[in-house]
Amino acid sequence: MIADLYGSLRQRFQGDLLRPADVGYQAAAAVWNGMATKRPGLIARCADRGDIQAAVRAASAGKILTAIRCGGHSLAGFSTCDGGLVIDLSRMRQVTLDAHTRSARLAGGCLLGAIDRATQKAALVFPSGVVSHTGASGLILGGGTGWLTRRFGLSCDNVVAFTLVTADGQVVRSAARENEDLFWALRGGGGNFGIVTEFEVKLHALAAVTLVQGLTAEPDIRRLLEFWRDFMADAPMDLKWNIDLRLAPHSEELPGKLRGRPVASNSLVWTGDPAAGHRYLRQAISRCLRDSVSSRVISFLQLQTMADSCFPHGHRYYTKSGYFTYLDNGTIGHLLEALASIPSCETQIEIAYLGGAAAQISAEETAFGDRSAPVILNLLAHWSDASTDAAHLGWIRGIFHKLRPAMKPGVYINFMSGDEQDRVPEAYRQRWDQMIAVKTRYDPHNFFRLNQNVPPRSLSEKSFVG
Ligand SMILES: Cc1cc2nc3c(=O)[nH]c(=O)nc-3n(C[C@H](O)[C@H](O)[C@H](O)COP(=O)(O)OP(=O)(O)OC[C@H]3O[C@@H](n4cnc5c(N)ncnc54)[C@H](O)[C@@H]3O)c2cc1C
Question: Which of 4, 150, 194, 412 could be joined to 166 by an S-S link, Cβ 3.0–4.6 Å?
């Protein structure tokens, strides 16, 4: 079957077709999460939209299992498969900037860093994620949160049009007044509806931010989390304050007493006038150990790349996530217990406060999961020794089990692991039936199924109740 697919594409394909024995296949087959390593039968690295159409038509006709890849950062490992086809967009990374209208066109294979570098030439930004080697397509289609979410909204809130290749190989554009059902579903619905070849996006003026970082150690972490949840409820949109619970690195730059100890690592980004931010940042700093605090104005490009080396390609990762309306004291207790038993130095509990501009868009306007629960928690295990897989998976599942009863039902699809397909209806909740209707219209045979899958009507068993 794969041999037939290769044969039919070979004549007209402009990009690269890589089979397991070909030079370059190993590198092309690798994805970011080492836990998701697979061996596709064919990697079709498309040069243009025509290649994508040809690959979709041929794979659809041959009923070939097909994965779509932009940056390859799917935590769940959805952008690869065993034996099937990978449609790889890494040759399609053009960013076309129009500084005058503060807009850009992003090709479907872009990484976040390429967008940042291009838009910063005009001191403009597209709000995206916090690691520059992440792919833009997967991130935007799932929603997209980052340092600028509170100021400018989710990534998907800043898309004005999508062009995609649907399961029948047609090119479809969707925007506010053009295929509106699709425009609604693509903003949070992931890769369910087709392959996006171009995003038309809005940009905003910003070139530098104030960054404050500092550590809080035991016994003060409980008080920090209590302060944070109340403080952020009224904080200005210009402030983003993320907390990671983790072990402090064994770094010379840190006071010796902290190295390897459980800490809360605070990162605060102020996007407004630095002088106006002082009074907010000062209060936050007072919760950190004085000799661990740094405060500086940095360029947007520095901000966007500062975490890149913390999440290397090929390591092993596993995640579970959820929302909280309020971080109650019982939940804080569970988080502290989990921190005390954290299985490795790279593993962390990421806690972020959404709200701001993202919460000002009504729930019905887009398919995106939940805008009303401000606290988003991501349990992220990160290790490299495969012999400790069970310990890391067990730790994540154990803490998730304890936290789950206090979570608001719902989940951000981009923070889900590959074994959570049963949570996909929960991600969309009251929007589930509408998702199925759009899926049925654009992908009736579920060709695009390696994703947080919304089944078409013929395959869906029931409506989501809850
Ligand atoms: C290091 C790291 C940092 C992250 N930071 C953030 C963050 O700050 N904020 C945040 O919101 N998320 C973040 N994430 C999660 C991230 O949003 C998802 O992992 C996302 O899927 C990555 O996109 P990608 O294009 O690299 O994924 P890929 O693995 O390439 O693709 C994932 C899925 O997206 C779909 N897809 C990809 N390209 C297309 C396309 N062109 N058209 C249609 N469907 C497509 C497919 O269903 C595919 O299976 C991070 C992930 C990692 C690994």
Answer: 194
3-state secondary structure of 214: strand
Ligand 1 center to residue 368 CA distance, Å?
A: 15
Residue nearest to atom 44 of ligand 1 (CA): 191
**Which of 31, 65, 74, 148 for a ligand 1 pocket mutation test, highest count of atoms within 8 Å of Cβ?**
74
- Between the CA of 152 and the centroid of ligand 1 the distance, in Å, is 20
What is the phi/psi pair of residue 399, to 5°?
-70, -35
Domains of the chain: 2-88 (3.30.43.10), 95-205 (3.30.465.10), 208-415 (3.40.462.20)
Q: Using CA atoms, how far apart are residues 377 and 353, in angstroms rounded to an integer? A: 9
Burial code (b: 16+ CB inside 10 Å, e: under 16) for 70-105 equals bbbbbbbbbbbbeebbbbbbbbbbebebeeeebbbb
Pocket of ligand 1 contains residue 187 by CB under 6 Å: no
* 113 Cβ closer than 6 Å to some ligand 1 atom: no
- Helices 2-10 and 49-61 cross at an angle (nearest 10°) of 150
> pTM above 0.90?
yes
Cα 384 to averaged position of ligand 1 atoms, centre (Å): 21
Pairing of strands 95-98, 103-107: antiparallel
Q: Is 77's C-beta closer than 6 angstroms to any atom of ligand 1?
A: no
Q: Each residue of 334-359: pLDDT tens digit? A: 999 999 999 999 999 999 999 999 99
Q: Look at ligand 1, atom 19, and give the residue with the nearest C-alpha.
A: 74
* Distance (Å, whole) CA 46 – CA 10: 12
Is there an atom of ligand 1 within 6 Å of 352 CB?
no
Model confidence at 138, pLDDT cuts 50, 70, 90, reads very high
Q: What is the pLDDT of residues 407-457, one digit of tens each?
A: 999 999 999 999 999 999 999 999 999 999 999 999 999 999 999 999 999
- Which residues, including other chains, have CB under 8 Å from residue 457's CB and lie 6 or more apart? 436, 437, 439, 440, 444
Distance between CA 347 and CA 253 in Å, rounded? 20
Ligand 1, atom 52: closest residue by C-alpha: 73
Q: What is the mean pLDDT of the chain?
A: 96
pLDDT in tens, 80-111: 999 999 999 999 999 999 999 999 999 999 99
State if residue 189 touches ligand 1 by the CB under 6 angstroms criterion: no
Q: What is each CA distance from 330 to 86, 136, 374, 420, in whole angstroms?
A: 44, 36, 18, 25
